[in-house]
Design a protein that fits this description.
It is built from 15 helices and 13 strands. It is α/β, with parallel strands linked by helices. The protein has a 9-stranded mixed β-sheet, with helices on both faces. A two-stranded antiparallel ribbon has the order 1-2. The chain has a two-stranded antiparallel sheet with strand order 8-9.
Length: 342
């Protein structure tokens, strides 16, 4: 048991070295004549890497207090020199994709459905009605992300943003018991934040980016449970729908960039809504995930969850760039998400 405890806390140094070179620190711009004060201003808004500059528009950089258009041009030019901003061959890109890792769900059947678990550099969305296992899946990931896995995955820390007040540390203790790991070590490796408004949720992403940069390669997973709850409250009616979708698009774009910039997995949960017009078109299930097309396009992989008998749940690949549409059955136990017993 002691060995398993050590596994959670210890980082595999060789894997860490690989992560170290995954992103270039924004401080390197000093060599290209960008002053420290300007670099500090960018860090304050969560731009901590050279790639982060490439991912930010000139307009957004000009909105940072104290950065003029001339300065922004100079920064963009310096970042361009340090990065390969053009095309690369599919073979070169496939070599880069080797750094992608998978985090297990706790159920072999479910992992098989996802091709090994949820992957890094991508947003995985799980949606379903209440009591379909979304939050249980989130809690299970908090523990499984810390365990060493296949293909040299060393395990790492997790950030959990809670919008519905459903996070329970005691639940992590139960799941830690199942994997024979120390309670204290597991809880220490999860950073938790409660978001109260959609604006607060967005601001927390600046902190997330800063934390991922500060402890490069240590964090492996970002969980938001759930992504849409606060947007549903802060924006009501059709009159505010356009603004809501625009703000949501900005947040999802930020999440995708963070996942690619720092090589982390992003797992979000989503709620459902009844579609009153669905009855007219003879749809089998009149319920659909909220967030519209914006959320549908932003998520790399979408998983639909539904209830089965007793503790059984059924997961279905709803949308994925490389996984076929398929289903898997799993169960929710005291130790989190596990395989369904026949």
């Amino acid at each position: 048991m002691k060995a398993a405890e050590d596994q959670v806390v210890e980082e595999d140094t060789s894997f860490q070295d690989e992560e170290e070179v995954f992103f270039q620190d924004i401080d390197l711009l000093q060599k290209h004549g960008i002053n420290v004060a300007d670099i500090k201003k960018m860090k304050l808004v969560g731009i901590c890497t050279v790639k982060g500059i490439q991912m930010t528009t000139r307009k957004a950089l000009c909105n940072i207090k104290g950065l003029s258009e001339a300065k922004v041009e100079k920064i963009k030019e310096a970042a361009g020199k340090m990065l390969n901003v053009g095309f690369q061959t599919a073979f070169e890109y496939s070599t880069k994709r080797k750094q992608v890792f998978n985090i297990t769900t706790g159920s072999q059947e479910f992992d098989k459905l996802l091709g090994g678990g949820i992957e890094s550099m991508a947003i995985t969305e799980a949606f379903g009605e209440f009591r379909t296992g979304k939050t249980q899946l989130s809690h299970t990931f908090c523990v499984t992300a810390q365990l060493p896995g296949e293909d040299g995955y060393s395990g790492g820390k997790v950030i959990f943003i809670d919008t519905e007040n459903t996070f329970r540390p005691d639940r992590l203790r139960d799941i830690a018991d199942r994997f024979n790991v120390d309670h204290g070590a597991v809880l220490d490796n999860v950073l938790y934040a409660r978001a109260y408004t959609s604006e607060h949720q967005m601001e927390l992403l600046d902190f997330v980016a800063a934390k991922f940069h500060e402890e490069g390669g240590v964090f492996k997973l970002l969980i938001i449970d759930s992504i849409m709850a606060l947007f549903r409250v802060d924006f009501s009616g059709r009159g505010e729908l356009a603004e809501r979708q625009q703000k949501l698009a900005q947040m999802l774009s930020r999440l995708q960039k963070i996942s690619e910039e720092y090589n982390v997995a992003v797992f979000i949960t989503n709620q459902m809504t009844a579609d009153p017009g669905a009855g007219m078109s003879f749809q089998a299930d009149p319920k659909k995930p909220i967030g519209g097309h914006i959320l549908a396009h932003a998520s790399t992989t979408r998983i639909s969850l539904r209830k089965g008998r007793a503790e059984m749940r059924i997961a279905k690949i709803f949308d994925s760039p490389d996984m076929p549409e398929n289903e898997a059955t799993f169960a929710i136990s005291a130790g989190g998400v596990t395989d369904a017993k026949e």
